[in-house]
Write a structure and sequence with these properties.
Layout lengths: L3 H18 L7 H18 L4 H11 L4 H10 L6 H12 L3 H14 L11 H16 L7 H15 L6 H17 L3 H14 L6 H17 L4
Helix pairs in contact: 1-4, 5-6, 6-7, 6-8, 7-8, 7-9, 8-9, 9-10, 10-11
Length: 226
Amino acid sequence: MVSSIRKHFERVTAAKAAADAGEAPMQGEAYELMQAALFEDYRRLKATQSMERKAEIKREILPNYAEYVAGVLEAGQGAQDDVLMRIMLWRIDAGDIGGAVVIARYAIKHGLTPPDQFERGTAAILAEEVAEQVLKHLDDEDADSLVLLAHLLEVERLTSSADMHDQIRAKLHKALGYALRAAHQPQEAHASLTRALELNERIGVKKDLERLERELKQNAAAQPPG
């Protein structure tokens, strides 16, 4: 177990490195140590074929980067940071959407970009990957639909002005629609699924839209006359 003194040291050194970097790319010993650790963890993940096992490994290793992330977010001024961006993506994959959104706020505010091998921009990756995670977990018995909805609304706010493929934004609105439906907000769910269909006619929400329309008509009919 990492001691509280070690955690404090990791956080302080990361904060200092981020402050010293200013708006230039991250550098320095704290960053280089995280890069080295990330490289070893990346090799371990590349050697694993099971996506389920990859997610388990990410949940196992992510705490090792928590103090670094906290330090950078505390004192950073927008330096490009590939370690930070990789951790954001790993947090999504591990199901820690809230932790990923914390990084995303900083990344989008300062215009940070994903590592070189990614063709999509930060906003597009965030929108698509979070939407896919939410769609995957909405049917889980232990899923908290209100928490998932809150994350999606934050992602939609963060990415609303970003340029991205319509298919990606459609996926985000699809996830929003289903989360709103799970939260018993049929009117808002209908609006989100309608927007998803406008952006991508093959998004696969037509039957759910029809069900929502029937539900809304039934609700309206059940209302006492004004």
